[in-house]
Structure formats: structure tokens, C-alpha cells
Amino acid sequence: MLHQNSQKRYKIDNAVYFITIKTDNSSPLFRERIFCDLLVEEILLCQKLKSFVLYGFCILHNHAHILLQASEKYNISKVIQSLKKESSRDINYVIEGDIPECRLQGQQFSYRFSKNFTAPNLLKYKNRFKWQP
Prior knowledge:
By secondary structure, the chain is α+β, with helices and mostly antiparallel strands. The protein has three helices and three strands, in the order βαββαα. α1 runs antiparallel to α2. The radius of gyration is 16 Å and the shape is globular. It starts with 16 loop residues before the first strand and ends in a 7-residue tail after the last helix. The relative contact order is 0.16.
């Protein structure tokens, strides 16, 4: 039985998807260059980990567009779930401080992905950011 709010998802082999991701409450988060940089790094990192074909992306003040083709191993839902989850953690880490298991936080979490994988250090972003509400 489907939940009444369930969305129907169609899987089309080798399809190229145009995805739009919005910020919470349409907040103009990406006016800050630092958050754009974080999202770009996360898109590129997710591309390596989830092995999808990235055709392009565009980041605007309160949303981003991504054009991609998912792999056989990771479907489009898993790719977007990972991208949104990890980029949210990255941004929250910069704004609020230490967030457990933030993927870009550094090498200590790289064992989750691969022994040869080293995540970029997020501290370079945190040191650049000064939040003023």
C-alpha cells in the first residue's frame, strides 16, 4: 500500500535527468560564495562516489539545477538523496560548528568510502565564513 503522499517514480534506462534542488524556505543561501563552493565540491565528490555522468549544473540564489545521468549501481533517487544530505551537513557545519560525520570534514571519515579516498578538509571553508544574520 502506498502512502497517500507518495510520489510515483519512473525509471528509464540511460535517461538524462534535469533536477532542481531548492533551499529550505527558499532562503537565498547561495548568495554567499562559500556555500556555492561547498555545493560544487559536493557535486563533484558525489559524482566520483556515485559514478554518475554530470552534464552540467547551475547554482542560483535559492536553488540549483543539475543535469545528470545516473549509473546502474546508484539510481537517481540515491544520487540526489546523497547530494542533498551531504551538502546540508557541509553547510550546517560551516554555520553551526562541528557536525558528526560531515563528509567534507576531513580524512577521519574517508574510511566510509574507500581506503584510497581522502575527503577535502572543510575547515578551509569554516575559517572563511563569518555569519551575520
